[in-house]
User: Fold these one by one.
Assistant:
Number 1:
Amino acid sequence: MTQAEIKLCSLLLHEHFGEIVEKIGTQLLRAGGQALRGIAGGTGLLLDQVKKALCVLIQHNLATFRPRRGGVEYEAQCGRILRILRYPRYIYTAKTLYGDTGELIVEELLLNGQLTMSAVVRKVADRLTETMEDGKTMDYADVSSTFVRLVDTHFVQRCPLVPEGPQSPEVPPPPAPTLLSSDKDMYTVPRLSLVGKGKRRRSCEEEDGEPRVKKQKQEGESSEAPPDDGIYWQVNIDRFHQHFRDQAIVSAVANRMDQTSSEIVRTMLRMSEVTTSSGAPYTQPLSSNEIFRSLPAGYNIVKQVLDQYLALLADDPLEFVGKSGDSGGGMYTVNLHKALASLATATLESVVEERYKQPFFQDFCPFPLHVTGVPAPRRFGSRCARIFRLLLRKKHLEQKQVEDFAMIPAKEAKEMLYKMLSESFVSLQEIPKTPDHAPSRTFYLYTVNVPAAARMLLHRCYKSVANLMERRQFETKENKRLLEKSQRVEAILASMQATGAEPAQLQEIEEMITAPERQQLETLKRNVNKIDASENQVDETIFVLESFIESTVKRP
């Protein structure tokens, strides 16, 4: 775990959970697993505060616990904390696939960490009812059906449970329970008869005006245990990542070949999305007949043309699609590892072409170069990208060979190689002819270590996201007074509109914010939107690099 990852985790925890949770999470990330007393001593917080913060981290699956030396040891999950950055993308994907209901289900699970199905259905139905007009309400059965669809496609899964069993009075209970998860019940939805409709929020006057008997009756009903008490659900992040990976592969095939090829690959991935694990190097073997039957309805393509497309995909140098079996029969698979390697390599090539040569401290500085007074940077450019692609294709080359193959003058080629070497995009391998490693009797070969370059770029991406978050915090802090004033004015306008105020009065309230202040607010909004968009774009690069690195680690 690098310092850039710890810093980014600390910023994410502070932004979403506050200062106390951020202190405890950072302490666990820096010191590793610790007991309760050690965490309190390292952070200087009260024991009660530490307990509540640990409950928050465990509830959101950001920390784990295990028995250790007669006590309990807590450990933060760095990878899981970094996934907070991708929450908006999960929610948007659920909206794209399952509509507004699926969006709110995933959002509620991410906001609460773990929830029962009945609680999720009730919350989502109430929220959807609030947005409906003409007094319409959302039925619990409709929300429940969407929840079941999310579980069937493995986007939502059960949380591990404490095993039930008789406790022996002679054996003392363990200091920490052992959570178990069954693959059989992971995606089994309990049979619930959820009957009802969503409710709208009532104002304080209406609540205060309710009869006391009616209030007590409602409180008594709410105190009853739900029918699925003890069965909690969470978002399956690995399944979302699998969907993102499949979408990236389909887009890459569409850019390289055509839309029909990408639709064939999409069909193959969709047929294997539930049966293939997220870390598998290949999808399940599929015959051309199975693929033909599973193509989208209305997609006009005959079996002979499909076989030609499959043969063309299998013969492509990128090898996204390959034939299964030693005989190379009619079974086809998607080579996920090579697809991720191609995506990561394309990302590195793009970064090399657009990379700017900049001072070392700029990676740590969240402010633009013109603020620091540093002269304008120099771009690597297309010639560096040409050398980089040449090294990827030829694997190992001497400097003279690079000059000849790339057709670049010796002085420029040498300068470009040294620039990329200093930035760790390429590496230098020494092959001595004699044991004394004399320079005159040693081959110096340039090469590209793709996994090492991907890790280097991933590290810089973490620093970039941390810088963007700091910049957003800086912009918000600088305009804090103006933002508070704008919120007060909006609240006054909303209350006056609800009471039926005249247009002249509303205009007078709006004029409390002057024209320069409105311009300043627009500039702030535009800057914050750019920062948010930049975070999302950098996170897409992070996802490709992380997926490639994980595939190289898991690959046998």
Number 2:
Amino acid sequence: MILDMHGKLKAKKKDQVVHRELLSSLVISHNFPYKFVEYPELRTWINYLCPDAIMISRNTVKADIGRMYMKEKIMLKELIASIPSRICLTSDLWTSINTEGFISLTAHFVDPNWKLNTKLLKFCHMPPPHTGFELSKKINEFLQDWGLEKNVFSLTLDNASTNNVLQNTLKRQLILQNGLICGGEFFHVRCCAHILNLIVQEGLKVLGDALGQIRNSIKYVRGLESRMMKFKQCLERFSDIDASSGLCLDASTRWNSTYLMINSALKYQRVFGSLHLVDESYKYCPTEEEWERAGKICEFLLPFYEITNLISATSYPTSNLYFLQVWKIQCLLMENVKDEDVLIKNMAKLMIVKFEKYWDEYSIVLAFGAILDPRMKLETLGFCFEKIDSLTWELKLEKINEKLYKLFAEYSTKGFTTSSSVQKQRQGQSSFSSSMSKPSLFYELKMRKLQVANKAGRSQLDTYLDEPTLDFDYSEQMDVLDWWKNNSQRFSDLALMARDLLSIPITTVASESAFSIGS
């Protein structure tokens, strides 16, 4: 730096390395083409601000970004190598307008600080043919490149027919390399967002023109500015209506837009009812019966809309939250099968057939996540199963319990806590107590309890399930990963299993978002 006679900054020496790094970051962050750095207007502006700055060519910035990528890749490899758990994957294929295919692979895992991570491992061109066999070969190449072929827990895919071949072929390859737990029984996870979409679309088939008048009313008002002005004029008569949200029109390919359309229209029901008083051309006012039916449909679709938003968020939650959401939807469908409205009843019937087709086996993975939530465990599962079917709930619970212990056996040497597990916990405590004069009294008591349980032949899973569930009143906003972090020394093997199960994504949204440069 150079200071003037008053001690103020007069000039600053420019570091060309920093200049190139910042320029590369700009190109990456805003998806600019490499030729952006050669735009004459940009060069003129930079030259005006700093005549000493040396602008680089498109080839140079491409090389710089390549080096940044390799640097980040090495850092991510080191991070993944430092975690004791396995990796959960999501993958998706996208075909552009000119039929060029692109594939993405995303990793989901809990890092050493017990924070859920989502990292895009690969995004590249996928030449045809886009068969399940070719896709499995491609993903296997990605895993070998990252050294993860023996460290995979699950793969979440959408319901495309090619994905059945993909997961079967990839599963066989990984089993040959001893890369899967329980022979890959829990390897394939279906995308929940796609399943929900199929279920709702099936139900909406029976609607026909039931929402025609509401749809036509919104189309009419939004069609011309003069009609919108008359609608607002009519709205002024109702001071108690919140006008902050506008009228939405649905798209035939997006069921959630149908929910948003009905929800927006219901807010303005009274306005539509009196619109003909200020607009004589308006002839589409729905009847009271149509409004009542729209309200039922809106209420019916609300849980689907909420769970779709939950699982499709940029920062998706841990898998323990999914079971209750899906159970809520199943209860709703069973309830509406008995509805007096024939239309609602027929919707529910079609949807529950689709629901049972996809969720029968898949519910096991969701149940594992709920069991590893200390607020729920088997107690909550039993309550949910019994409410759905009081005759078979015990059999369902027994089946899940059996599979849970089978999975846990893979995480503990002989299916129960061994002396080696205790030794690991002691080693962890010794590093913790190195900065203290002696171990915590509470820690010694916990370790003693664990040793007694070990001598009695009880596993960590037995001990965990026998402990009372946490009170929801005091733990509603609890981060389940924090709980496992704090209890990882008591349940070393079980905590390792929790890392894998709680990081399972039940949607491919993380991989799909790689194909969009929008928000």
Number 3:
Amino acid sequence: MPALPHVVPLKSVKSLNDSDYDGMVLVSHTLPTLLELASIKSGIEKVFKIDKAVETDGCVIEVNFPAQRLIYSPTGPLNRDYDDSRSYSEAASKGIARALKAGVTSPLLILPYEQKFVHADLVTLLGALEALYVPLQYREDCPDKCPKVKQLGVWGPDPVAVTSIINLALALEDGRCVSRDIGGGDPERMAPPKVEEYVVQAFKQHSNIKIKVIKDVNTFEKEYPLYAAVNRAANAVPRHQGRILLLEYEGEGPIDCTLMLVGKGVTYDTGGADIKAGGVMAGMSRDKCGAAAVAGFLKIVADLKPKRIKVIGAMAMVRNSVGEECYVADEIITSRAKVRVRIGNTDAEGRMAMADLLCQMKERAEGGETNCHIMTLATLTGHAVLTVGEGYSIVMDNGPARESGHAKLLQEAGAIIGDPFEISTIRREDFAFHKDPGEGVDVLQCNNLPSSRTPRGHQGPAAFLILASGLDKHGLDSSLPIKYSHLDIAASAGSIPKEATGSPVLALYAAYLEGRH
């Protein structure tokens, strides 16, 4: 697979004596034992005698290879009870960053030779590529300063395995770059119409992906009334007008699984009429990372062409603007599923943007799609960050999804590839919270407190989405149970000033695509 325009050129290197590289990066949890690395081990041991920090902090040493210098970037000791494969990606990222500081322009990455975790070599390469990612707007504005290196060589004891790892890493990184580009773009560069342009361009060479763009306001109001409410204020400014993007892939062979992904794509969240005050609006350009992940995952699908699976992605791109046209609390809006919703707080716009698309996916499941699993992906709540801490996505299953063991599957897949999930449970209190006590209203959209100050602040929105979309009619005791999971990625998507991470596209790959391509 050729290197993609936004991914640094990769090459499988058969010999450490290759003269095309001016620095080597070794990632490992222990000193090397391979014969080819004997001199490297000796050099590290010499430094270790005078600096015990080498075991955890690494070092830069001179080596008797054409590259002349080696950056040793250790994972540190790995405890199987609590550590995970992220130790490899973090060490690789740190090692590449150190190599750049040393002036290396063509690094040669030495993959782990003793693997404590499955896919440690792949995770290592992905960590190196993460360190070499250049944000979209920097690539566009300063092309003379990009990329960070000329090329990246990859060496491992099995050249055939290295080639396979490179090909897979290129596809995964391509998807992560799409997700990072969209998620990390500023409010103007990735306003809804610009997202449309980017997505169409990103998939133009993939005939296996069908794209439908919806931008007609009348269509929004008729088919996606909750989304239309959020879009009302932004629609007055042409460059901020909303877009719904529908992407679809169908693999070869008889379909045995249909994934339907609905992503929150709020390109900027002012809070609307319930405006975000006190400086908390900064960083809200990252409120589109759910939709960005949908696009990134579909990009991986397009590259790998998995068999026997259908993937449908919906991106709800909208700006939650404030102005004379904005929707306000106390409005009663009937959703696509004919559920009457009372608005409680306009800053709870993400669930509004996704609910009607979720209903549309439900309708497709009702129409006979094979073995459906519907998911919503969203940077939805600050409560999620408080609950699990930075770097973790949260998965919440409805009854049918829970019965299938889905959450554990996704958590285990994420752990293997370094894109971790924690599991939360949707409970009866979450549905009771959204029961509107007023006459003639079915669902209360939200309370007036931030999610971080609301008990069960990240589980409640999942219940709202189930109720507002009509998925509550498809539980375990229904004639047509439909699997549904809500993924809150507020803690894993990456907050300014850090780059967007692309999570959870790696975990989605490991859970649903591995073994199908």
Number 4:
Amino acid sequence: MSLLRPSSLALGLACLSSLAAAAHIEVTVGKDSKLEFNPPSIKAEIGDTITYKFFSKNHAVAQSTFADPCQLQENGIFSGFTPNASPDTAAPTDFTITVNDTKPLWFYCPQTNGNHCQSGMVHAVNPPETGNTFDAYKAKAQQAATPSTPPVGTLPVGGLRKLHIDVGFNGQLMFNPNNVTELVGTVVEFSYNPANHSIVQSSFDKPCQPIERDGGGFVAPFVPTKQAPSGVTFEVTLTNPDPIWFYCAQTTKSHCQSGMLGSINAATEGDKTFQAFKDLAATAPPSTIGPETPLVGALKLNGTFIANVGGNVLDITTLDPALGGQIPQPGMNYPPYIGGMAGGNQPANYNWGDNITDEAVAVLRALQYIDNFIVALLLEGFNLLSQGQWSEAYPNSIKQTIGSLVAQSLIHRRTYTDTLQHFGKDVVPVCDKYDLATALTDVDTWLGTVLTGLHLSIGATLDALSAVGASDPWATPALATGIGSQARMSALVNLMQNHVAAAAPREVLLPTSLATSYVAAHYATDSSCAPPSADGKAKAIAKLVIKDKTLQPDTNRVKEITVEIPEDKKGDGLFIAWLGPWGGLKYTSVDGISGKAAVPDSLSGHVWAVMTSKSDVAAADIDTVAVAGPEIMWVSQQWSVTDL
């Protein structure tokens, strides 16, 4: 097994590089009453997003194979049908996908009324210039059998379907649109406009009053603004097809009673239509709004999640009974606000291939095992910060940021669980109880442990990319894109610990087996916390105990460490393997009696130390010669604002 596996690592780094310059592309569907996508064929890079805007008639975007146009491929992307009467004004609902690789993607409109696909209404992303070209696909579609699939009513998958509603449209007391029919899975985005509005869910029978039911409904606060667009949005996700009723609770000018209300999926006839709701609201008593805002949905400012409005702090452990302060089990559906806190949800489809290798299953289960621990650690600390003994340690803004780290870690974990479940593989159950007593001694110790956990996950993910990037290429964007988020999380914790945000220009690769061993050795309490393995024989390597550090006087750099040597190893030839940035690996010898070992001068920032019985062993094989470890260590100089 090679140490770096250069080709797959380069692929992962190229993916991260492309994300930094990701482009946004818009494609119109049916504009000017034409049965066409415009542009019909596009080039896109990994990380680019493509938004489809729908015009006249009733169109959808569906993914096919080149060989079988006009038929939705298995696990293919589908936007859902979007009716719109206007030929030149886009529907309020659009659909966005993210490009995960540069393989060709083939799309069509499946509308059977007029056989849109067979009439040439097709589209391609990254089609080849020869062979299976876009023109060849279009010609093939024109000869395809009818009817196209899927039918009207099929739910969206593989992208973000979003309904945009203006709050206070054009300075008027109205939501626009205010009466729509939408599909389950659609994200409804309310955009605030002048002057001072709110968004509150009600029942049909009691308009202008918050809905009365277990868990309540969504509530977005009053947001005064003088500009349009304001950049302030509120998002909720439709989880069922039931009618939804909402209103603005502003009592000045009686907004709700004056007609500032709306409905989603209301009946078109009978006694519970939108007009009936509006008529009932006209005579309703003064409006009210719930005491806690935001509630259930996600409030954002220019895309950044806002957890605190008017002194109310969003508490992820009490907002939804499904969490209850405990780690959500792998595979459970999270409430909508988790995605809001994280800055986005996991995709519905990772562009999985037809199969998964055994090695990929092993590394995904290892990464999930590590992230189970990170989620538990973050959740415990956040509870203490938000409502426990550390509640005075940081201002609310910092607490909210740490709360978002909890949500992001939950979303990261879904990458592994979604994939394992997709291929019918076992996920790793949550440990019954981690030994977190030492980690929760005080807030600084907890932060240090959080940083260690993040470096474990980052290092193991780099190793995983090098292991499966070639055999399971879909895994590269799925895994690599999470590294950036975790690196930003670790930068935040670095700053809180008085270290430079980015300790080195590259992250440290850590073999997956060592990362899982670290969690097991430090925090496992029983067999339920044992690391996953294919043969059930995985064991935790002993802890590496660093008893002392010798600092260089002029720089405070760690020059030498003293480690505890196991009794049965004293006098033997022992070494410290140092794993640093850029995939660096160095060895220094350990004095068999005193336990002293030099720290290589070339190291910077955080490094991992492993006691071994041999030197010159490749990083991927260190677990076979490990005596104790790994252990993370900060070797570089600390800094403060006075140094700038």
